[in-house]
Amino acid sequence: MIGQKIVDARKKATISQAQLAQLLFISSQAVGKWERGESMPDIVTLNRLAEILGVDLNYFSENSPSSTTKSEQLTIENTENQSVERQVDQTPTDTKSNKLRWDLSNGNWVDADFSGLKNLREKFSSSNMQRCLFIDSELSGLLLKNNNIDRCDFSKSTINNSHIDGSNLVNNLFQNCSIIETEFSGSHIMGCDFSNADLTGVTFKTGGFQKNSITNTVWNRTSFNGMYIAELVFEGTLTDCSFENCKFSKVTFQQATLTNTFFKGNNLKRIRLIDCKVDPLTYAFLKNGKADLSDVTLVTD
């Protein structure tokens, strides 16, 4: 049933199997297996499918009719959210700890305002969040798994020492955020704004980092491992960073200073280095990856 719904939505969106596979960073054979019912996408991929095909995530539910439009579904979602929000307000407190007991995991949240939230931890796992506000929130130690986070605003929030696993993050705002020592694993991050964010000690593993705004972003001990990195411009200073077994597409380092930055297992012919300064160790890594060093200045001090 899910396979047929994928077929119907793909054809309605006039997208070929090959085009859909490219957008999902998978093979067209995998898409074919879904549509024939030989295998099923996981929840994170379903979230991405819904976004690409212009349908709601609930479209793939067995009980959801294929004819339900996205606008109709959003109306249903808003009604459900209001009902759940009322339930949260009425949740009893724990008499021993005098703390509110609540868990918003496995939810479908649209246009909700959670600004100033504290101690979120794992309470939003396996959720679909669209256009939600988390402005100026304390979210350190956040644990998210299998989430779809679309057009949400985390500006001025602290998200240190957190773990985001198997999630889809699209068009979100992380401006002026502290995201120190956080790990993104198996997650696709696209169209997000990390301007003035501190990504010290952040680890990105096996996912995608694409079309993001990274103006004045702090890159210190930041590592990318097995990532697809595309359509980005790195500026400023990168210190003690690493790029290992990554695939680059339309990536530019412009007026950047790279110090002790590690490149391994990468073909660097596709990256552009414009008016950059590098130390000898970084220079050696770039040269080994066959990067064009014609506009690079070697700094020995």
Question: Key features?
Answer:
single chain; 301 residues; alpha/beta; 434 Repressor (Amino-terminal Domain); Pectate Lyase C-like; twelve-stranded parallel sheet; seven-stranded parallel sheet; 21 strands; globular
Structural write-up:
The structure is a single chain. This protein is 22% helix and 26% strand. The chain is of the alpha/beta class and 301 residues long. It folds into two domains: 2-68, lambda repressor-like DNA-binding domains (434 Repressor (Amino-terminal Domain), Orthogonal Bundle); 94-298, Pectate Lyase C-like, CATH 2.160.20. The strands form three sheets. Strands 3, 4, 6, 8, 10, 12, 13, 15, 17, 19, 20 and 21 form a twelve-stranded parallel beta sheet that branches. It has a seven-stranded parallel beta sheet with strand order 5-7-9-11-14-16-18. The chain has a two-stranded antiparallel ribbon with strand order 1-2. Helix 2 crosses helix 3. Residues 65-101 have low confidence and may be disordered.
